[in-house]
Design brief:
The structure holds 2 protein chains of 2 kinds. Chain A is mainly beta. Chain A has one domain (about 5-150): Beta Barrel (OB fold (Dihydrolipoamide Acetyltransferase, E2P)). Chain A contains 3 helices and 11 strands, in the order αβββββαββββββα. Chain A has a 6-stranded mixed β-sheet with strand order 8-1-2-11-10-9. In chain A, strands 3-6-7-5-4 form a 5-stranded mixed β-sheet. In chain A, a hairpin with a 2-residue loop joins strand 4 (about 55-60) and strand 5 (about 65-70). In chain B, about 45% of the residues lie in helices and about 20% in strands. In chain B, helix 15 runs parallel beside helix 16. The chains are: A mainly beta, B alpha+beta.
């Protein structure tokens, strides 16, 4: 899939591009515009008394960003860390954060009619955080509203209230 | 091609604002009774520059006001009219009007046209001499008459002798006469005072005096003026008597009246005498020879400024750069420092014989990086004068409103502080200064009844102390009232007891909603404020300390880190993890003995350090780390001190000490309890900086328990 092709499609069909990644045996997609970069997993600095899925913080070219492991958060697959483990660096609401996933496959363009509303069950994610299900050929992507998920109180990545 | 004039508007606005601030400063400093022509010229120049700028940009209303102002100033500086306090008031009003007009042009703020007309009318009437000159009211500053110049660089000491025989006095005068000029002034009680003008050091003088007298009986003051007004002499006398009584206003514990101690007090600017020189210098009075360096700097700066203004052709020595650019530069330097540390670390394993040239280049890089970092950090540094300069006017207005007399004295205005901190310190300081005037300094009658001078003194000082900058607001007013604070605190439902130490009682005034003011005024007394002051300062990584003596005044001292961006840290290890302890909190580190650790009723452990029981904070327990040193005696404890309280932190190892670039954890994550920030280590990894203040605070209940259980 060439870049020019996807771009032109994106404009014509008002479709969106999604970055597809896997967690356990499921394939997910997130809005590519939220993705800043993809990098390998490196040693994190643990944060004391943080939930287990918050692996810690890393130094991303001088800024300190938190890294969360989606596999732990959503009980998908076994969290192993090797040279193939991937961290997706997201830029959400002006904040940068990393998300550990099993692997990243490709960038897919989906037109609105390829996206179906998500059923109430069948996913580790609450439907509140889902955009819908996208179908491309034989594949099915669970489209995650990463903005809402990451800024949710459930993830606890952002202080929703200023500390008293 | 048209020139976009709007870009120059901004420059004019900035410049006009500075000029007006300068004008106000000069006006407040001017001595009405004996105005210095250089001062009047300087005021005239600022008015003229504003007028010139305003005319250039076609801002007629401002140029009209400045024109009237200028003509009046012109007559005064040419000696056609005598300066009165009425004039000064009118000039200040004109300055306010100009500032209002400036605001109107700049941001569309409301301009009160009636006020503008009033000011113009007032200035016009004054310049026509229509308003009869009121009796000259001396300004609240002490001032001296012009006096003969003595040799540049000489010191003037006043030596007060105890009762001795006239023969001895004569002998002493002869001896000291070899060093410089000496004059004798009789004091009450048959004693005498010698005024010595000399290039010799004080030690030499004391040495000579000790031939005749016991040096402990001497009172030596540096640089009091010969011809100060009676008031000044009285003030000095009283201050001397107070010191004789063994009462040091700023440091009640210091009761050694030794001459040298007093002198060092003076040098620190805490004494009562040195500041007079500064006021005089600020007031532009032809300063006598023994100018303090600070005074010399002020005069020099003024002259420099003046000559710069006159010489329009000269190139500007400074440029305006946006703060974002500077911050970006600082961030990049931070990166560079980290990269340099990485290179240093990686090259440290190389064979020094084989890679000699590489290693010497690396060490050069290290040096250059450090210098570069210091240079860049200094861009953000601004002198405290930026803050201090706004207070004289406020003090003057506030004192006038409350019917009090206040001498305002600043010290250490050249001390530099990070720009970010400077901006955030303004509000707390303003609050403290207002508090001092409103609550601290008494009404003139009350002061006179208490045997003090009618005019209260308000000191604002800044200086370095270790890695911190200490800013003090001190008054010689009534002091804090322990009983009233305790009563009020009990009334507010705070936990208090009679046995609390003074320092703990004073800290109560930082509780929210606390005010002991009898009457709520529009100045202060609503109880909002001190808690905000405390919170603001704590959020800057600083601390507030209060010293107060009943009847003698209150000193509030604020201690701030020099900059927020770089921290002197101690690297420690606990388990596999590396943390940074801000060095400012570290008192000492030691290896605890098993028998010094005591268990407190299942609530935790305390450590006995030289007879004192300190709460033992086990870092591995707080942070859930699989630590090597589970038993305190296997590890190292670091004694930490924060807000006057101590605690012992148990860790595995001390790793080292280094400057770390502080990174904010909250910009991409959230506040983590026990952690104040993060930094990047030489290997590129992240290390967290411990929030010592919070850790020590959290251990407080244990401290109390320990105090109760082990007191017996």
């Amino acid at each position: 899939m060439s870049i020019t092709q996807t771009t032109s499609q994106g404009i014509e069909g008002a479709g969106s591009e999604y970055l597809a990644f896997t967690l356990g045996s499921e394939e997910y997609g997130i809005d590519i515009l939220k993705v800043q970069e993809i990098r390998g997993y490196e040693a994190v600095t643990r944060i004391a008394n943080a939930p287990e899925f918050i692996k810690g913080v890393i130094n991303l070219r001088g800024i300190i960003i938190p890294v969360v492991d989606m596999r732990i958060k959503f009980n998908l697959g076994t969290p192993t860390y090797d040279q193939f483990t991937v961290v997706i660096i997201l830029n959400i609401a002006g904040r940068v954060m990393g998300m550990v996933v099993d692997s990243v496959s490709d960038v897919t363009t989906l037109t609105p009619d390829q996206v179906k509303p998500a059923p109430d069950m069948g996913s580790a994610f609450s439907t509140d955080y889902l955009i819908g299900l996208g179908t491309v050929d034989d594949r099915m992507l669970i489209l995650v509203d990463i903005d809402r998920l990451m800024s949710s109180a459930e993830m606890g990545l952002i202080d929703n209230k200023l500390a008293a | 091609m048209t020139i976009d004039i709007s870009q120059f508007y901004q420059v004019f606005f900035d410049e006009a604002e500075e000029l007006l601030a300068e004008m106000e400063r000069l006006l407040l400093g001017v001595d009405v009774a004996a105005p210095d022509s250089e001062d009047l010229n300087a005021i005239f120049r600022t008015a003229h520059s504003v007028k010139g700028g305003a005319s250039t940009f076609g801002i007629t209303d401002m140029s009209e006001v400045t024109h009237v102002l200028e003509s009046l100033l012109d007559r005064i500086r040419k000696g056609e009219m005598a300066l009165t306090s009425q004039h000064v008031d009118a000039f200040l009003a004109a300055k306010d009007t100009l500032k209002m007009q400036l605001g109107g042009h700049r941001s569309g703020a409301h301009v009160d046209q009636d006020a503008v007309a009033n000011v113009r009318m007032m200035l016009h009437d004054l310049s026509e001499g229509l308003v009869p000159a009121a009796t000259i009211v001396a300004p609240s500053f002490l001032h001296a008459e012009p006096k003969a110049q003595t040799g540049e660089g000489a010191h003037r000491y006043k030596i007060e002798l105890p009762v001795v025989e006239q023969r001895d006095v004569n002998a002493l005068v002869d001896e000291l006469g070899l060093m410089g000029r000496v004059s004798v002034t009789p004091l009450e009680g048959g004693r005498s005072a010698l005024i010595v003008t000399t290039h010799e050091s004080l030690d030499d003088i004391v040495a000579i005096c000790s031939f005749v007298l016991d040096p402990g009986d001497l009172k030596i003051f540096e640089a009091p003026a010969l011809t100060l007004e009676q008031r000044a002499i009285e003030a000095r006398e009283r201050a001397r008597i107070e010191e004789e009584q063994g009462y040091g206003f700023f440091d009640p514990a210091d009761d050694t009246p030794a001459a040298s101690a007093e002198l060092s007090d003076d040098e620190r600017g805490y004494g009562f005498f040195q500041p007079i020189e500064e006021i005089r210098a600020l007031a532009g009075i032809d300063a006598p020879a023994p100018k303090s360096t600070a005074a010399a700097e002020v005069v020099e700066a003024l002259e420099k400024k003046a000559s710069k203004k006159e010489d329009k052709g000269a190139e500007s020595s400074s440029i305006r750069v946006s703060v974002e650019k500077v911050d970006q530069l600082i961030n990049l330097i931070g990166e560079l420092v980290i990269t340099q540390a990485m290179i240093e670390q990686r090259s440290s394993g190389l064979d020094p014989m084989l890679h000699e040239r590489l290693l010497s280049s690396v060490s050069q890089l290290t040096r250059n990086t450090r210098e570069l970092q210091e240079a860049v950090m200094s861009i953000r540094m601004m002198p405290m004068d930026f803050v201090f300069s706004r207070f004289p006017r406020m003090v003057r207005d506030l004192a006038g409103k409350l019917g009090k007399k206040v001498d305002f004295i600043t010290h250490g205005a050249a001390t530099e502080l990070d720009k970010g901190l400077i901006e955030r310190i303004v509000d707390p300081l303003t609050h403290l200064v207002r508090n001092s005037i409103d609550h601290g300094i008494e009404m003139p009658q009350a002061r006179a009844a208490a045997g003090k001078s009618e005019a209260g003194r308000l000191f604002l000082s800044a200086g370095h102390q270790g890695g911190n900058i200490v800013i003090e607001v001190a008054d010689d007013g009534a002091g804090l009232n322990r009983e009233r604070i305790l009563a009020k605190a009990a009334q507010n439902g705070l936990a208090v007891s009679e046995s609390m130490s003074d320092a703990e009682v004073w800290q109560l005034i930082f509780a929210p909603g606390f005010s002991t003011a009898d009457v709520v005024t529009d100045v202060s007394g609503r109880g909002v404020g001190m808690d905000v002051v405390k919170r603001n300062i704590t959020s800057m990584g600083g601390s507030v300390d209060i010293r107060s003596a009943r009847g003698f005044g209150t000193t509030i001292s604020i201690s701030l880190p020099l900059t927020l961006a770089i921290l002197d840290g101690m690297t420690i290890r606990c388990g596999e993890e590396i943390y940074i302890l801000p060095l400012g909190y570290v008192v000492e580190s030691l290896q605890p003995r098993r028998e010094d650790v005591r268990e407190i009723a299942g609530r935790g452990q305390v450590l006995k350090v030289r007879g004192e029981y300190l709460p033992l904070i086990a870092l591995h327990g707080v942070f859930g780390i699989a630590s090597r040193a589970v038993e305190p005696s296997d590890g190292i404890v670091v004694i930490l001190e924060s807000e006057g309280k101590r605690a012992a932190l148990l860790i595995d190892d001390l790793v080292g000490q280094q400057h770390v670039v502080v990174k904010n954890l909250e910009s991409n994550y959230r506040k983590v309890p026990g952690i104040s920030g993060a930094t990047i280590l030489g290997d590129g990894g992240v290390s967290l900086i411990l929030d010592v203040a919070a850790l020590v605070r959290a251990s407080s209940p244990l401290r109390q328990l320990a105090g109760e259980a082990l007191a017996s």
